[in-house]
């Protein structure tokens, strides 16, 4: 019985992660467009010394680019909620997930809801945390309606009319008057906390934690938690964690490739070709390029990459490096506020990983011989 319960919990958690990652995968293009076009808007405006007033300079090239960027970053949050609901309930959950996620981003609506229930705050919107909650609730409720038995003549109207309307009607008061304002207050508090972490000890700790999470399972659930957390903050204007996460995610493949190049005798011969591709994967922000090394020797490789990525993430946060784009690796470095520091943090973390891995790994032939003697 205990094993059955454990399997059920594991299956449920896996399903939740998959639903969340569906939302994130559909959201990423909106974040990418928003971050890059907004950065381009500021860049274009800077040539006319008008960067501070880019949103007031109506009709200028920078203003048009900034409008596209703002649209992408505004839509990314309801898209996240919409596709979480879609992953759970399919088409009937899509519109309720989008609408509920959108409505709780409207500061004036949440402020009015807060006045009704006597709770101050919430005027900044519920952010991506609210979208995640709205998406899961919309998906669960829509799926419940979807599973009801209805007369045959009503069935065709269920997915396009009855389920979306009923789901939205049921959840709107809950999202506005029960969950929306508290989530908004929590989101604002988190955003303010992270916005103030511009250098100093707190930033270093946060960067180290995010960096270690990115390397600990190299694309697995822990990695994705750190990534989703940082991507969500882009819409709040907090882009330093995204830089730390991207840098830390690039370190493991590059660092292990360096170790392989420096000390090929410590790795299987076939790993040398993997090292060449690992450099390209690393610079493309594909942390999974380190998995072949970790699979072959997890006890030594995982501590090496966690240490290197933690150092890289901590250095990035300490230096105040930012990144408005959620993906792209080395190709989006020009969008950083400190491109040279961005690259420098990658190199620092990669060297730490390479040094530790090279120091603690035995020669491959000696390791094979030891394993043979044990057998």
UniProtKB/TrEMBL annotation:
It is found in: Cell inner membrane. InterPro entries: Bacterial_PTS_Sugar_Transport, PTS_EIIC, PTS_EIIC_2, PTS_IIC_fruc. GO terms for cellular component: plasma membrane. GO terms for molecular function: carbohydrate:proton symporter activity; protein-N(PI)-phosphohistidine-sugar phosphotransferase activity; protein-phosphocysteine-sugar phosphotransferase activity. The chain crosses the membrane at residues 20-44, 64-86, 125-145, 157-185, 197-215, 227-255, 301-320, 340-360. The keyword Transmembrane helix applies. Residues 16-370 form the PTS EIIC type-2 domain. Keywords: Cell membrane, Membrane, Phosphotransferase system, Sugar transport, Transferase, Transmembrane, Transmembrane helix, Transport. It is a multi-pass membrane protein. The keyword Cytoplasm does not apply. GO terms for biological process: phosphoenolpyruvate-dependent sugar phosphotransferase system. NCBIfam families: PTS_IIC_fructo. PANTHER family: FRUCTOSE-LIKE PERMEASE, FRUCTOSE-LIKE PTS SYSTEM EIIBC COMPONENT-RELATED. This is Sugar phosphotransferase. It comes from Haloferax mediterranei (strain ATCC 33500 / DSM 1411 / JCM 8866 / NBRC 14739 / NCIMB 2177 / R-4) (Halobacterium mediterranei). The lineage of its organism: Archaea, Methanobacteriati, Methanobacteriota, Stenosarchaea group, Halobacteria. The gene is ptsC.
């Amino acid at each position: 019985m205990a094993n059955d319960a454990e399997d059920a919990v594991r299956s449920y958690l896996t399903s939740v992660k998959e639903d969340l990652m569906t939302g994130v995968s559909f959201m990423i293009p909106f974040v990418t467009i928003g971050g890059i076009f907004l950065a381009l808007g500021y860049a274009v405006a800077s040539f006319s010394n008008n960067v501070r007033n880019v949103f007031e300079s109506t009709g200028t090239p920078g203003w048009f680019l900034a409008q596209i960027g703002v649209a992408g970053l505004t839509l990314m949050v309801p898209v996240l909620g919409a596709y979480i609901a879609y992953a759970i309930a399919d088409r009937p959950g899509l519109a309720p997930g989008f609408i509920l996620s959108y409505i709780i981003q409207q500061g004036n609506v949440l402020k009015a809801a807060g006045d009704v229930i006597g709770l101050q705050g919430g005027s900044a919107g519920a952010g991506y945390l609210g979208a995640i909650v709205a998406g899961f609730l919309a998906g669960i409720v829509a799926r419940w309606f979807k599973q009801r038995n209805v007369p045959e003549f009503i069935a065709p109207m269920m997915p396009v009319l009855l389920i979306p309307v009923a789901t939205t009607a049921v959840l709107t008061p809950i999202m506005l008057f029960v969950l929306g304002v508290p989530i908004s207050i929590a989101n604002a508090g988190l955003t303010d906390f992270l916005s103030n972490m511009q250098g100093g000890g707190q930033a270093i700790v946060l960067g180290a934690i995010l960096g270690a999470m990115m390397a600990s399972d190299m694309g697995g659930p822990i990695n994705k938690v750190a990534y989703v957390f940082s991507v969500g903050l882009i819409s709040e204007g907090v882009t330093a964690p995204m830089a730390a996460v991207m840098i830390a995610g690039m370190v493991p493949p590059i660092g292990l490739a360096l170790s392989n190049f420096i000390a090929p005798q410590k790795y299987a011969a076939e790993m040398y070709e993997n090292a060449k591709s690992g450099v390209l994967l690393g610079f493309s922000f594909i942390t999974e390029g380190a998995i072949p090394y970790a699979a072959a020797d997890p006890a030594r490789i995982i501590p090496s990459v966690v240490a290197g990525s933690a150092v890289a993430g901590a250095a990035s946060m300490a230096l105040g490096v930012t990144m408005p784009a959620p993906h792209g690796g080395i190709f989006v470095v020009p969008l950083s506020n400190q491109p040279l520091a961005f690259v420098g943090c990658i190199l620092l973390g990669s060297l730490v990983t390479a040094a530790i891995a090279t120091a603690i790994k035995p020669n491959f032939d000696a390791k094979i011989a030891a394993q043979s003697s044990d057998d």
